[in-house]
Amino acid sequence: MAKKIWMFAVSIFTVSILALLVAGYAVISGNNIQTPTVEINNNSNELKAMQATIDQLTAKIETLEADTINELEAIKTEFIQAVETANSEIALFGISLDQSVYSIGDSIKVTADNMGAQIPVQIELLSYTGEVIASSIPYSDAMGKLVHSIKLPSFIQEGTYVIQATSNDRTVVKSITVSDSDLQTLEESSTIPAGLTINLDKETYKPGEIIRVSGNGQASQSVSLQVTEPDGDFTSAHSSSSSDGSITMIYILPPDADKGDWKMAIKLNDKEETLTFQVT
């Protein structure tokens, strides 16, 4: 009997322990914190699209830079060509007269080429001392040629005069002789000097003064004059010797002429004379 009671107690204890274990497991299971599952979105497609857009923008920027460089180069080329054309036109600018000796009342025919279309030219008839007797501003035609006539007024006297043409800040002059004598007789009695002699009216000048050039050479020939400044810049002019071979030209110094040694070269055919003078 005692043995049965003992076995029954052990059984009751065992069941109690098991019950406690089951209850503890239940409590632990009930308090277990579940870790939430986080979904990570896959944005690789958006990143690829953004990178493609960036690549396209970069390509457009590079294209714009290339176009800008090409445009600047084109502008530069056009500018250089325009400057070269302008320099060429200025260098070639010159005038010619239908003759070098006129009678009072005659018309002087002035011609200029290589000027460009519709370029204004100031043409003046000057006395030997630089006084303006007549002035006009004709324009070249569409082909860059200018033909203009100046009528010698009846009040002028016999002597030497100057036709001065100015265009694009470039001035050229030609000397003429006005005479009432028979031109044919004058031409028949002309002689042809063998050489070229040139003289200036003095050796020293002030800025703005007139330099008078005289001399002798071959009759009725083109005469070129080049004046070189102390800094190397030069100005050219053209004229013609008269039917008796005499040469008369004037050169007007700029009002702001640099002081120092100047040179003047006169050329007639294969003959050339160089003179020096000072501006003080």
CATH classification class of the domain at 85-180: Mainly Beta
Q: What is the tally of beta strands?
A: 16
Share in helix: 25-40%
- How much of the sequence lies in strands comes to 25-35%
User: Order of strands across the widest beta sheet?
Assistant: 2-8-7-4-5
For this structure, what is the CATH homologous superfamily of the domain at 85-180? Macroglobulin (MG2) domain
| Biggest sheet details | 5 strands, mixed
Which class of secondary structure composition applies to the elements? Answer: alpha+beta
Q: What is the arithmetic mean of pLDDT?
A: 76
Shape: elongated
Oligomeric assembly:
single chain
In DSSP terms, counting alpha (H) and pi (I) runs of 4 or more, how many helices?
Answer: 3
| Order of H and E elements | HHEEEEEEEEHEEEEEEEE
